[in-house]
Amino acid sequence: MAATSMAAALAANLPAPQAAPTPSAPTYEAIPASMAKVIDIEAEIPITSVQLDAMAVSKIIKHAKEAPGSSAHGLLLGLDLDGTLEVSNSFPLPHHSNDEDEKSAKGVARFQGAMLRSLKEVQADDSVIGFYQGMTLGSFFNQTLVETQAIHQEKLRHGGIVIVHDISQTARGNASFRAFRLTRPFLDAYKKSNFSTTSLIDRRLTFSTILEEVPLKIRTNALVSSFLGTLSETSVPPAAQTNPALASSSAAIPPSYSGLNLGTANTPRNLELIVEALDNYKTEEGNLAYLQRQIAREKAKADSYVAKRKEENASRVAAGLAPLPEEDVSRLFKIPPEPSRLESMLLLGRIDAFGKSLEETASTGLAKMYAAKTNAGN
Fold first, then answer.
1. Which residue from 17, 152, 172, 211 has the fewest beta carbons nearer than 10 Å?
2. pLDDT, tens only, 207-223
3. How many C-beta atoms surround the C-beta of residue 291 within 10 A?
4. Sheet of strand 216-219: strand arrangement
5. β-strand 73-81 against 84-92: which pairing, if any?
6. Is 61 exposed, middle or buried (0-12, 13-18, 19+ CB in 10 A)?
């Protein structure tokens, strides 16, 4: 009672709160008609293309080259403008060998938050519009990519996109960048966690309809072009600056032997990955077949129990006795749910990607071998 009375006394001695003045209603200026399509406040204009800045391209290539294997991944920053998602910057995320480690996930989240705050302090783009992922030999179908993109499409403006970068193509001198997002039918099935056979048939889902590709173009500027020009220029030795003859000889274009390269260095690794993916698919199909047999056995037991109960009730009714009450079959027999076929779809997509990469590499090498054989005969 003493504590309550003291609190009441203190509250009574406090000054009475003054009524806050009623704020005036805010006034907004109408967006000019000429800018209505550009300033998309409500995100009503759908994204039809992706524009990747050359600086972001160089950062992604550098990260993919330094990261072990195809573990390079990071966030994309930018904005959407008149139906075009403009990627102006990117930064890598730390990679941990154990993705299930909770401490590692928290560390990545802290790093991401610190980077975004730092970018905001220097007034740089800090709006996350997607992420990028490194891959090898054209294969990027995996659970992590699908889960991350599903989260982005639910929380980000316009759903965000994922840009995949093929490291093996870059090693051959071809910078490969492709932009994707999840299709609406797949996203509906993912939200309901329903990848049963019936769901896949109803939504017409296959490995080729998991993702839809968005047209991508790379935008460069004068500064990046000048930087790339300095990299391609031949450096002149100090001795050649005083001797014009040496300067003219050093400026000559060195001979290129790239035409002699058959481009089949990745073929053994490609074949190994195809065999590994086929083994994984066979194992997954075996697990699915075992679960299907188990479901069929439990359903047969339940059906047999229901038929036996009906016969028993019919005989009791014929004898003038009351029928036995019907019992819930699902409580007596634990019928497991139909297994998900998502992993099988992803493995098929991986096999298809490895097969296309092998076809491209082998066809190019075969054409060069026939050309070399023809020239050798002449």
1. 17
2. 999 999 999 999 887 77
3. 14
4. 211-214, 176-182, 161-166, 128-135, 73-81, 84-92, 49-53, 216-219
5. antiparallel
6. middle
**DSSP symbols for 315-348:** HHHHTTPPPPPP--HHHHS--PPPPP-HHHHHHH
Which residues, other chains included, contact 291 with Cβ-Cβ below 8 Å and sequence gap of 6+? 336, 338, 339
Is-contact 88 68, C-beta < 8 A? no
Three-state SS at 159: helix
- The structure tokens listed for 153 are 């499409």
pTM confidence score: 0.72
Give the residue carrying structure tokens 């490194």. Answer: 134
Q: Which of 132-141, 182-191, 213-222, 369-378 has the lowest mean pLDDT?
A: 369-378
| Distance between CA atoms of residues 14 and 62, nearest Å | 63
How far apart (Å, rounded) are the C-alpha atoms in residues 78 and 87?
5
The CA distances from residue 28 to 25, 41, 122, 227, 334, in Å, are 10, 13, 29, 45, 61
Q: Is the pLDDT of residue 154 over 70?
A: yes
Please choose, from the candidates 182, 169, 155, 161, the residue with its C-alpha nearest in 3D space to the C-alpha of residue 75. Answer: 161
In angstroms, the CA 342 to CA 346 distance is 6
- Give the per-residue pLDDT at 215: 93
Distance, CA of 119 to CA of 223 (rounded, Å): 21
3-state DSSP call for residue 43?
coil
> Where is average pLDDT lowest: 26-35, 193-202, 238-247?
238-247
Angle, vertex CA 92, rays to CA 108 and CA 343, nearest 5? 70
